[in-house]
């Protein structure tokens, strides 16, 4: 048990990283667009996520009230950039890989703490868990970096007219989903490193003549 403290930490870090990955995937605040025309986007701010785009409007509601309008991205919208569709697929893969990593780590820790001294089984499951953690971390790193690059270069998106969105903002900035994704990457890669570093304790056999 004393040799698996890092692997227990890997499970804790991997769990938090997996949760943050899921939160990042569900948030719409990947890119925050500041627009000049407030006729429809009343607040002047729109949020571009990987599944939908949202903004606040006072146009079709009673005075003093506001309503959030969201448009979900369709697979048929060729105008939506590749980094958004790539983020959808990669984050789904990351969530699944992270779950597999947690499962493998739980199984290995169960054997350790129950005193099951099956060297090959325990070592392999820690290695498999570490591989899944690292793979999940890389799957999060790619869309987070790609979308952050698009934000820093103020890249435009040719939204369909039905979205009521301009093709480019006056200014855009990274939303909350990107830093959350970065933290998830760090935790998943750390947990993978800890899991892969496991070494089964070697017991010396002493022979007395």
UniProtKB/TrEMBL annotation:
It is a multi-pass membrane protein. It comes from the Eukaryota. The keyword S-adenosyl-L-methionine does not apply. GO terms for cellular component: bicellular tight junction; plasma membrane. It holds the Pfam family Claudin_2. Gene3D superfamilies: 1.20.140.150. It is found in: Cell junction, Tight junction; Cell membrane. One of its GO terms (molecular function) is structural molecule activity. The chain crosses the membrane at residues 6-28, 40-59, 84-109, 121-149, 169-190. Keywords: Cell junction, Cell membrane, Membrane, Tight junction, Transmembrane, Transmembrane helix. Belongs to the claudin family. This is CLD34 protein. It comes from Aramus guarauna (Limpkin). The lineage of its organism: Eukaryota, Metazoa, Chordata, Craniata, Vertebrata.
